[in-house]
């Protein structure tokens, strides 16, 4: 009997040891997403006026992905694409509204939980409201702290944030407050970005002590504007190194927000080293769409979209191509660069490949894994094309195939055609010179788009019949 008990104990010990070893082999994953950060807002992507030394160092230690795209040109659909692996021709939430993810929607967090990951979202969600099926804790996240509603997230000094499914009151006193918590504070005490970042650091500390890898989706609100504050919408506690600049006040605020975020990313990397997990942690940094012209901000002042045309709400490159950096010591070559064309719908299959659970990825997603690109191991699958749909301001759609880019914005206008290799700024419409390519890419857009009951393109207005009737 004693021998049987001893044998059973040994078997249990071996199983536990194997499970612990397997967990240790899987890297931690941190996905950091800024809000409305332009392609040209980082030093490593050409920025000259705003200091981002820590993110620039991240680029030196990892890979710059120069041709990586957001899921859409505005908040909620871009985040839906990121979480579900479906582009805006297929995903459920295709625009900024009050929609909630459904129980049937499979998220990145749910996939990684199948691999034994601890999961947390800290910051801005935008895909589910209080009491709905779309809240993060009902979509695969073990822990959540931040904003549920994207309008609430405009306010950097709100009266509350959410922890899991409960409101956490803050010390800020509102001057005006809307039904979702959006508004303006007359007494500014608790800066939400600082609270969220501190929460993330604490969560990492706890997660690092457990015998399981972790996935942290750190969804920052910087440098989005507080739209409700008008020209004073670039809310930040202090201007820091930009205080004495001879700049417009909103530009001081915009720069200070980005440098504050950069400062905190430096703290993040220091934390990973202090906790002894730096070499076993994959960090991806990006933005949810292009730069904005809100809250008094002028994206031209600091050349926020760099060499690209367009900003937020445009399907030109400046609205959807985003600065993306990948760092994973020992796996991603330091100082490397890739022009592989990918997008947010590729994140789910990539992280699933990192975690070793590719069989848990839904078969109908639009993404492919870019793990071979960042590690240099294996053959990288190419997209047939990349597609975006946008349902505001007259609707729009765009498709990229290789160096070719077709865009129809507004939707009921002729398709424009550009060659990005020769014309990154999309200044020369080649549609008249290549009608066969226009026809080919128009067919691609039609094939990529699935009708939605909630999101519809505007219909063309019927032409007026000016013919006079007979007497």
From TrEMBL:
<keyword id="KW-0732">Signal</keyword>
<protein>
    <submittedName>
        <fullName>Arylsulfatase</fullName>
        <ecNumber>3.1.6.1</ecNumber>
    </submittedName>
</protein>
<feature type="signal peptide">
    <location>
        <begin position="1"/>
        <end position="23"/>
    </location>
</feature>
<keyword id="KW-0378">Hydrolase</keyword>
<dbReference type="InterPro" id="IPR017850">
    <property type="entry name" value="Alkaline_phosphatase_core_sf"/>
</dbReference>
<dbReference type="Pfam" id="PF00884">
    <property type="entry name" value="Sulfatase"/>
</dbReference>
<dbReference type="InterPro" id="IPR052701">
    <property type="entry name" value="GAG_Ulvan_Degrading_Sulfatases"/>
</dbReference>
<dbReference type="InterPro" id="IPR000917">
    <property type="entry name" value="Sulfatase_N"/>
</dbReference>
<feature type="region of interest" description="Disordered">
    <location>
        <begin position="450"/>
        <end position="471"/>
    </location>
</feature>
<feature type="compositionally biased region" description="Basic residues">
    <location>
        <begin position="461"/>
        <end position="471"/>
    </location>
</feature>
<feature type="domain" description="Sulfatase N-terminal">
    <location>
        <begin position="27"/>
        <end position="357"/>
    </location>
</feature>
<dbReference type="GO" id="GO:0004065">
    <property type="term" value="F:arylsulfatase activity"/>
</dbReference>
